[in-house]
Amino acid sequence: MADRRKDELNGYVWHLVHAAPEVAQCDLIYTFFHPLPRDERPGTVVNTLQNKPAEVSWAPVTGRVAGEVKLSISYKSDKLFIMVMHIRGLQPLQDGTDPDPYVKLYLLPDPQKTSKRKTKAAKRTCNPTYNEMLVYAGIPRGDLQQRVIHLRALSEGAFWENTLLGEVFIPLRTMTPGHRWVDWHQLGMGRPDATR
Questions:
Q1: How far apart are CA 157 and CA 100, in angstroms?
Q2: Rg of the Cα trace of the chain?
Q3: Which of 11, 14, 22, 101 has the fewest other C-beta atoms within 10 Å?
Q4: Torsion of CA 154, 157, 159, 161, to 10 degrees
Q5: Gene3D superfamilies attached here (predicted)?
Q6: How far apart are CA 175 and CA 180, in angstroms?
Q7: Distance, CA of 151 to CA of 53 (rounded, Å)
């Protein structure tokens, strides 16, 4: 019963944040889903909506620019193809060394985090090249425009402590079958101490 209610609630919230702008962007909805500073600190309870719909729907990535990522995105036969090509302009780690960067993707909304895909890590570079294709199958055309790519550039660390180097949310509302979108996307950095 609890699982069914959880699924129903997740569905309701998803439809709420993807509703018409006068509903989705009203002050009540925005403040309810927008994380508070205490939610961002390590060791505290975080927002139970793992995909942070408030950030996806209304707020561009905040903070300083932390580099750029080049992607090739296309859609064909209910499959979304995302080629992670290059990243340029990443910053060195706090100790001054170059990161071991890799890219992690989620296709939002994704409350159970089943859409995670990631590239291999590059070694000691601020300008890695990947040319890795990440594929999402079973995405109906009618659902595609409601999806958002959440891309995070992270550096591999010891003891599973990975450092966030930058992130971006890319809405797919203009994506159409047969169209190929190749572009650079700015990576933002909201918090310098972010890890995951």
A1: 8
A2: 17
A3: 22
A4: -40
A5: C2 domain, Phox-like domain
A6: 8
A7: 14
